[in-house]
Amino acid sequence: MNSAVTQKPMDKVELEKLCRDVLDEAGRRGADQAEVAASHSLGLSATARLGDVENLEYTNDRGIGITVYFGQRKGSASTSDLTAAALREAVAKACTFAEHTAVDKFAGLADAELMASEIPDLDLDHPWEIDAQQAIALAIETEAAALGFDQRIRNSEGATVATSRGARAYANSHGFAGSFEKTSHSLSCAVVSEADGEMQRDYWYSVARNAVDLEAGELVGKKAAKRAVARLGARKIKTTRAPVLYIPELARGFIGHALNAISGGAQYRKSSFLLAAAGEKIFPSFLQIEERPHLRGAMASAPYDAEGVATHDRNIVSDGVLQGYVLSAYSARRLGLTTTGNADGVHNAIVPGNCAGQADLIAMMGTGLMVCELIGQGVNAVTGDYSRGVVGFWIENGEIAYPVHEVTIAGNLRELYQRIAGIGNDQDTRGAIRCGSLLVESMTIAGA
Length: 448
What we know:
448 residues; 2 domains; alpha+beta; five-stranded mixed beta barrel; PmbA/TldD fold; single chain
């Protein structure tokens, strides 16, 4: 079988031409404004479980979406059929839908002067020359490293190797047209440990634009096994108040609640615990949140947003003070503001550390709870009330004492953000938010 990534998806120039053709059709049908987004990606995924192939999947995804505006009436349609006839039908459907929608005075394209004038090369396209057999072999190797790590690893949920390569294009009736290619590669493993009748599960994964930046399969497997074994012997703890430390992959979610709360949609719908909070000090003075959309090779980098608006560096939070919101053109108009180039969310929101690393934060907390898994969706976006089930470790005298489970942490995010005592430099770079270990100086911990 040929590799999915050595084959090439539709050329970005082809996708741009499709977008322009669709725009022309929308113009012929009388649309005042229109925008088109097209994409094509190829992918390969191989999963091995207990030393054998469990799943092998090849993907070939393509699609195009068209939005038209007749005055301030909006209609949208999409199709995965890229033939000329299907595209004409999609445009016709979008125009028909627009006839039946209500007038929305905020509807329309982002302003023409905000369109990206240049499309920088962000080093996002690195095909991985791996075929199905090689992917299967790597998945088996990864799982074998986990299964051989410790005799208490008794079962496996498998190891998966995945890779995809794709191109995206966007164009609108302002005359803007842009496109770029990107890749994404990952390696993951999940295993089950068992001792004295107790079973625990944990996992690890690595993801990158360039396969050379992935952690080795052996390392991914061993990390998954080490985490699963470390959970054995979990205890309950008594209800108390104590410091709480989030590991990096959970810290980014903790910060993410704030970014969701300052999104334009949450603001104009008045469904945010940070409603109208621009200019307020919502974090401690040492905390910064910097958006850097043009980091080369990063997972959330983009030269422009989903509306063609140029992305740019900015500080979302400076010295603890919220500088502004995360806006699309529509939400910005609803708020009487200007889009921030975030129609598709934040692009590399970075929270710099003020501490050397996780070990320093553990020493700083002395006694408390380190959170390694969160359970449930107990976050009220309107009030900021926060209550999550936790699996993790109890810390005593600045050292890990034992694993804990059946614990709940609670508080209000407005107050909890003010109690952030430190952030490590051990950033998790696998997503749109980059944050290290994060220490909250005091939270309610409900146990036995």
